Each structure stands twice: as structure tokens, then as C-alpha cells.
Amino acid sequence: PRPLAGKRVLITAGPTHEAIDPVRYIANRSSGKQGFAIAAAARAAGAEVVLVTGPVELDDPQGISVMRVESARDMLHRVEAALPVDVAIFAAAVADWRVASEGSQKLKKTAAGMPPLQLVENPDILATISKLKEKRPPLVIGFAAETEHLIENAKAKFARKGCDWIVANDVSPATGVMGGDRNTVHLLSREGKDVTVDSWPVMTKEEVATALVSRIAREVGTGS
Ligand code: CTP
């Protein structure tokens, strides 16, 4: 069955790298595995898939248009250029901050001590796309990576971002989710004004991807 045949699906994955100078950057521990698994599952369900990924050590999945970017701002531009889509899934661990002015040369140690790094906030790609007037995808799905108060923090994020569903996952070091092969997720959606929390058992990232794509197919699929 190819329930997503004829549907265009956009997925973001991986970390972003925010340059400090030509040799250093701000990053995080995201491996991109969950986003890549979702892209492969959506493709298997018949969708036309666009995957916008930060720097990861994963090969391009077959049959998928892959765009590799470095920074949050590059990722936002590629995402905007990929619209319109039927479904957008934001699995990337986007860096929240970048340095205000990137050094054109390597920062050097000086007698004055450590150079101060002035940080500015990156654009929020999920919130930007969720709030579009034109071209807002009919189904926008975010992730909530939390290390404490998982459901409470995910609910607050859900209210803030303006997306239709949020996949909450615990990324504290003890879970091994960041970089690992398994994930335990909770799918938050809305029923009227209430938020419904659907807690899934621990699964491989491929199984989470398949389950999420089945839910998506029930929502927007053609059933063909
Ligand atoms: N996200 C995004 N652009 C950003 C930050 C986050 O698109 N600049 C998206 C992520 O892809 C994810 C969701 O927003 O779908 C939540 O990301 P997360 O890192 O869990 O939360 P933040 O929004 O960064 O909030 P906080 O750092 O307070 O947890």
C-alpha cells in the first residue's frame, strides 16, 4: 500500500552548525537518524520526499531529494524554497543561538583572556512555517526534545509553536536517544481545546518512523 502517493512531504533532520570562525562552530549531539528514518518511511509509503538536513554522517536515502545545509538560517531558506508541501515534519535539532558576528579569521588567544562570544537567537523554523498565512502546510509536525518535565514542557512548546502535532521525546543522557537507535515518544495532538497525549512503547527509530507515517497517512492519506 502506498497511502501517501501523490503527497509531498518535507522533513528536517540533524543538528545545525553555527560558525564561530573559520575553524570552530556551535553544534549539538543530534545524529539525524530519526529524521532520516521518517524520510525513508514516508518514501516507502509513496510520498515525494524532500529532506533538509544539517551535517550528519548518514548516506542519502534512496529516492529522496536531500539538501545538506550547515546553519539554521540555511535550513530555513531551503525549507521555504521547498514549499508548498502537504506535510512538514521538523525533526532537526536546530541550534538556538549563533554568534552575533562570525570571525573572518581564527580567534586567537590574547593576553586579555578569553574572547567574549556574543550570541543572538536563530530563527525558529517550525514556528515560522506554522504561522505562515499562505503556503502553510496542511499538517505541520514538530518535535520536543526535553531532558526534564517531558510532557509539561512539550505541552508548553506545543502551545507556543503553532504546529498541529508534537512528538515529545526524552533526550536526557540516560536514555541514549541522542545518537542511539531507539526512541520513546509521546504524540501530542488536539481534540478541540484539549491536548491528547498518546504514549508509544520504546521502539527503534525506524519503528517510530513507520508508526508516525501510519498516523500521517490516516490523517492526510489517499488510502490507495
Ligand atoms: N525548531 C526549529 N527552529 C529552531 C528551534 C527549534 O525549527 N530554531 C524546531 C525543532 O525542529 C523541533 C521543535 O522546534 O521540531 C522544538 O525544538 P526543541 O529543540 O525541542 O525546542 P526549542 O524550540 O529549541 O526550545 P527549548 O530550547 O526551549 O527547548
How would you characterize this protein structure?
It is a single chain. The chain is globular, with a radius of gyration of 18 Å. The protein is an alpha/beta fold. The strands form 4 sheets. An 8-stranded mixed sheet has the order 5-4-1-6-9-10-12-13, with helices on both faces. A two-stranded antiparallel ribbon has the order 2-3. A two-stranded antiparallel ribbon has the order 7-8. Helix 1 packs across helix 5. The protein has a single domain, classed as Rossmann fold (3-Layer(aba) Sandwich), CATH 3.40.50. Helices cover 25% and strands 29% of the residues. The chain contains 5 helices and 14 strands. The model has no long low-confidence stretch (mean pLDDT 95). The site of cytidine-5'-triphosphate has 16 residues, from helix 3 and strand 9.
